[in-house]
TrEMBL record:
Pirin N-terminal domain location: 36-132
Sequence similarity: Belongs to the pirin family.
Protein origin, superkingdom: Bacteria
Listed name of the protein: Quercetin 2,3-dioxygenase
SUPFAM superfamilies: RmlC-like cupins
Length: 288
């Protein structure tokens, strides 16, 4: 049995998004630019680690109304709370340990903003948003979203740590998020010296993303807020160099053309131009 080596470690890119929300853009990371950056981890398009930060009282830090088309977003909250609203009439509360799977499909306008309690008192916020590409045949499906409550993906005990599975199957546990793209996605926490191994389907990409602390994978150290993209092999094997909190991703590449502009990811430039026109003319809907 062969173990997957680290192909490359890509540092995240510190930036801000929305209303002054500090984040680290992990995918595409530093040095990745243009359309090729959105192919590097096919079928995953973008991954942001937002926070950790403490919102001051009266803050409006969050993600005001903005559009998406052509992919899914999977937003996972580690601490704090956000309220969601979208142009389909959907609304919900994102809680610690919970997630939200949104299908942008043919187009949606949504917002994620602090809950009223945070507006009054302030409070901590931290989470991860992942963009998952939709296959060409699914890019014009009806938009919508699903709340994934913490009880739907409880912590599972591991030797030297614990794991929460959001999508796909890890260590015999299957997560509740379902995507047309074949993926597996989990949050793990390990004590220093803790180890984890798992097989990866042939032909799938795989990556480990420490949020806090550091890992070692086949002799390569992977620091916090960076992405270790793994190479060929049947199995991943990693060790915690410090107490570590990290995300694991694996997925089957779609290998389809990618055209990208801001919040739209389609297959051709003409489809991007149509998405811009549809948003500007209100055909993606509005938030009241």
């Amino acid at each position: 049995m062969s173990f997957k080596p680290v192909s490359i470690v890509v540092p995240g890119l510190p930036t801000e998004d929305g209303n002054r929300v500090p984040l680290t853009r992990l995918v595409p990371g530093q040095g990745h630019r243009g359309a090729d950056a959105f192919r590097a981890m096919d079928p995953f398009l973008l991954m942001d680690h937002f926070g950790p930060m403490v919102l001051p009282p009266g803050t409006d830090a969050g993600f005001p109304p903005h559009p998406h088309r052509g992919f899914q977003t999977l937003t996972y909250l580690i601490q704090g709370a956000f309220r969601h609203r979208d142009s389909t009439g959907g609304s919900g509360l994102l809680q610690p340990g919970g997630a939200q799977l949104m299908n942008a499909g043919a187009g949606i306008v949504h917002e994620e903003m602090p809950v009223p309690e945070h507006l009054e008192t302030g409070g901590p916020i931290e989470g991860v948003q992942l963009w998952i590409n939709l296959p060409k045949a699914q890019k014009r499906t009806a938009p919508g979203y699903t709340d994934l409550q913490p009880e739907a993906m409880p912590w599972q005990t591991l030797p030297g740590g614990r794991m929460r599975v959001l999508a796909g199957t890890w260590a015999g546990v299957t997560g509740p998020a379902v995507a047309p793209a074949r993926i597996a996605y989990a949050h793990l926490e390990l004590e220093a010296g803790g180890r984890f191994q798992h097989s990866i389907p042939a032909g799938w990409i795989a990556a480990a993303v420490p949020l806090h602390g550091s890992l070692r994978i086949e002799g390569t150290e992977v620091p916090a807020d960076s992405v270790a993209l793994l190479g060929e092999g049947e199995r991943l094997a990693l060790e915690a160099l410090t107490p570590v909190s990290f995300m694991l991703l694996a997925g089957e590449p779609l290998r389809e053309p990618i055209a990208h502009y801001g919040p739209f990811v389609m297959n051709t430039r003409e489809e991007i131009e149509q998405a811009i026109e549809d948003y500007q003319t209100g055909r993606m809907g509005h938030l009241d």
